[in-house]
Design goal:
InterPro entries: RNaseA, RNaseA-like_dom_sf, RNaseA_domain. By secondary structure, this protein is α+β, with helices and mostly antiparallel strands. It is built from four helices and nine strands, in the order ββαααβαββββββ.
């Protein structure tokens, strides 16, 4: 059997396979977009009162102004868990979180001179997400927004 610096070829193959699988899972463009648009943990501290205006601009959601967007303030692993044990099947390919989670929802009030103005609503609620076949969150269903 071929030996490379003390590591047998099958062991080397296993290590390379694990590295490739880890890279593929961590580079899921749809999941990365979901995190950019909807994950904010720990919650970003914003000077003044304009959390939504600041976050929507920072996350690239203001060209054009996005009508509604929610930021969930839990660790990314907790969002992923909704695709499994921490969520239940809702309808279609959506999963409903079992727990109420801290969420900030930004709703467009209007825009002037190219600047988007948002109404901010903070609270806890169950969220609906879509997951890809590998169990990664890739879609946030905004229609589930019910102020508490």
């Amino acid at each position: 059997m071929l030996v490379l610096k003390g590591i047998k070829a099958p062991m080397l193959f296993l290590l390379v396979s694990c590295a490739v699988a880890t890279y593929a899972l961590s580079h899921n463009p749809r999941h990365e977009k979901f995190l950019r648009q909807h994950s904010d943990f720990p919650q970003t501290a914003v000077a003044g009162q304009d959390y939504c205006g600041t976050m929507m601009l920072r996350r690239g959601l203001t060209r054009p102004c996005k009508a509604t967007n929610s930021f969930v303030h839990v660790p990314r692993t907790q969002l992923k868990d909704i695709c499994g044990w921490a969520g239940t099947h809702y309808r279609r390919a959506l999963r409903l979180s079992r727990a109420e989670l801290p969420v900030t929802t930004c709703s467009l009030q209007g825009s002037s001179r190219g600047r988007c103005r948002y109404w901010t609503h903070r609270g806890k609620r169950h969220i609906l997400i879509g997951c890809d076949p590998s169990g990664w969150p890739v879609h946030f269903e905004e229609s589930n927004f019910i102020p508490s």
